[in-house]
Amino acid sequence: MIDHAGSIDTVTGSARGIGRAVAKTLAAGGAYVAILDINEEGARAAAEELEAQYSVRTSSGSLDVADKETVVEAFQRLSEEFGHIDILVNNAAITTNINMIADMPMENWDREIGMNLSGAFYCAKQVLPGTVERKWGRIVNVSSAAGAMGGCGQCSYAASKAGPLCLTKTIALEYARNNVAANALSWRFRRSMQ
Question: Using a CB cutoff of 8 Å and minimum separation of 24, what contacts does 98-104 make?
Answer without folding.
Answer: 98/153, 98/154, 99/153, 99/155, 100/152, 100/153, 100/155, 101/155, 104/155, 104/156
